[in-house]
Structure formats: C-alpha cells, structure tokens
Design a protein that fits this description.
The protein folds into two domains: about 10-45, no CATH class; about 50-285, Rhomboid-like fold (Up-down Bundle). Helix 7 runs parallel beside helix 9, helix 9 packs antiparallel against helix 10 and helix 9 packs parallel to helix 11. It has about 290 residues and is mostly helical. The protein has twelve helices and two strands; from the N terminus they run ββαααααααααααα. The model has no long low-confidence stretch (mean pLDDT about 85). The protein has a two-stranded antiparallel sheet. Helices cover about 65% and strands about 0% of the residues.
Length: about 290
C-alpha cells in the first residue's frame, strides 16, 4: 500500500515535485528519487533524514556518552566555559585528535573528533551554527556535496592545527599554533562558510556579491571571536575555511552542475570513512 511507482512525489534531496518513476530528479539530479516506488514507505517510517539532522544527532549523542563515561569529572565545578565538560580520559576514548594522537598513528581521530565537544557551551554554539549553515549549503550544493564538504573541511582543519602545533614546537615560536589535543565541529563550520563564499565568487552579480559579503563577514567575526576566547584552535578554523572553500570550488554547485553518481559515491565514501573511524576509535579506546 505504501509503494508508488507512478505520479508525483517529493524528491528526498531537494524537496521539489518530481516523478516517482524518474531516473533522476529534474531539479537536483538525484538518482532514482522515487526509491524504486518505496519513497512513500520511507517517508511513513520517518521521512528523509538529511545530513544536518544526522550530524546534529551524532554530536549530541556523543556528547551525552562522553559525560556518562566519567560523570564525576563532568560535574566537577569549573569555569563558565567548562560547564559540563567531559574529561580528557572520556574524550580520548571516543577519538579526540591533535598532535599527540596523530603522533601515535591515530589517523581516524581526524574524523571522530569533529563530533566531540568539550562543554555544554561548546556543543550548543556549534550545533546552532550547523543548523544555520547546513541547510544553506545543502540548498546551494546538494545533499551529497554537503556531506563531503562537512567531512572534508573538518579533516583539513585538524590537519592545519596539527601542522601548526608541529611548526610552533619545532621553531619554539612565542605563540603556540594548533594544539596537542583538539575536538569540535568548528573546522567543519568554517568549511561550510568557505563553501558558501566559494558559491558567491562563482555566482557573481548582485546576488553573488551579497552572499560573498554576508558570509565572508560572518567568517571574519567568528574568527575574531575565536582569537578572543581561551583554548580555541584558530589554526584549525583557518584550515577548515580553506578546506570548505576548496571543496566548494572543486565540487561546483547545483546551478552549475546537478549532483552526479560521482557526488553520490563521494558521499558514500565520507559516510563509510566516518563509520570506520568510530569503529577504530571504539576498538582502541575500549577493547584491551
């Protein structure tokens, strides 16, 4: 009763009306938007889950887990920026990254650390920005490219932070760049901003200029705020912005090119890499 092979449906990616039996969505190019007739059944079971809700859910779930792993440490009185802060032990078990884990060969932490957060203020701030920027990037680039931009820019951001810490340590710079340990989706958030800035440059005209100015100002304000707050890996923020800018220019947007099988494959690769990263993190963190 839930299978529909003819007529009109809403595309799971762009939410526009298309045909149930279409080989690809007329608007965004998603392959088989009717899910071989089972799109209504999927919607009845909970609907299409986008990248942004999945990312937010993963961040919140892992933050709760990090608190439950060491509740005594999380409830210990600290400063206002460390309210309900998970312990370093818990974050290390779940996949915290930085120069130290990288030196131990834990490459997978470049992905797992994106979804870990150090306090209630940290996760609240990041989740708000993900909910603000994720749908905007999805509308401009598509669902598959959003997943690639979010994951790729987060990884690039952490690599920048690790490289900065190694540089400052090697040359004994007066200001330490990067951090021995770091977590958070801030690099990916700056990557989303970078992707939107890339769209504004590609789009041009009055609209493109407005997009470029608005989101470029947001990126600048957030970066300045990071400089004023303690314990922020600003080099990772810069790296995330560069990663998002590069991904935006490389992947193109929906106005220039609909999503293709290559984009879908890259999304699948990003998802598989994330799952593998957490499997390795749990294996090394909790198994003897």
């Amino acid at each position: 009763m839930f299978r529909k092979t003819t007529g009109s449906i809403l595309c799971p990616s762009c939410k526009r009306i298309t045909n149930a039996d279409a080989e690809a969505c007329f608007y965004c190019g998603r392959r088989r938007p009717g899910l071989w007739g089972f799109a209504p059944a999927v919607r009845a079971l909970g609907g299409y889950v986008g990248v942004t809700p999945l990312v937010v859910s993963a961040c919140v779930a892992l933050y709760v887990v990090s608190l439950l792993l060491d509740p005594a440490a999380a409830l210990r009185p600290r400063g206002p920026f460390d309210l309900l802060a998970p312990s370093g032990w818990a974050l290390d078990r779940l996949g915290m990254t930085g120069a130290a884990p990288w030196a131990m060969g834990r490459w997978w932490t470049l992905i797992t650390a994106i979804y870990l957060h150090g306090s209630i203020l940290h996760i609240a701030f990041n989740v708000l920005w993900i909910r603000q920027l994720g749908p905007a990037v999805e509308e401009l680039y598509g669902t598959a490219r959003l997943a690639v931009i979010f994951t790729g820019s987060g990884v690039v951001g952490f690599l920048f932070g690790i490289a900065g810490f190694a540089l400052s340590s090697a040359f004994s710079l007066p200001i330490t760049i990067g951090a021995p340990f770091t977590i958070g989706a801030s690099g990916s958030i700056f990557g989303l901003l970078g992707a939107i800035v890339a769209y504004g440059r590609q789009r041009g005209g009055v609209f493109g200029t407005m997009v470029l100015r608005q989101y470029g100002q947001w990126a600048l304000v957030l970066f300045i705020c990071g400089l004023l707050m303690p314990g922020v890996d600003n080099f990772a923020h810069a790296g995330g912005f560069v990663g998002g800018l590069f991904c935006g220019l490389l992947l193109s947007n929906l106005e220039r090119r609909p999503e293709s099988l290559i984009d879908q494959g890259l999304r699948a690769a990003a998802f598989a890499a994330t799952v593998l990263a957490f499997v390795l993190a749990f294996w090394h963190g909790f198994l003897p």
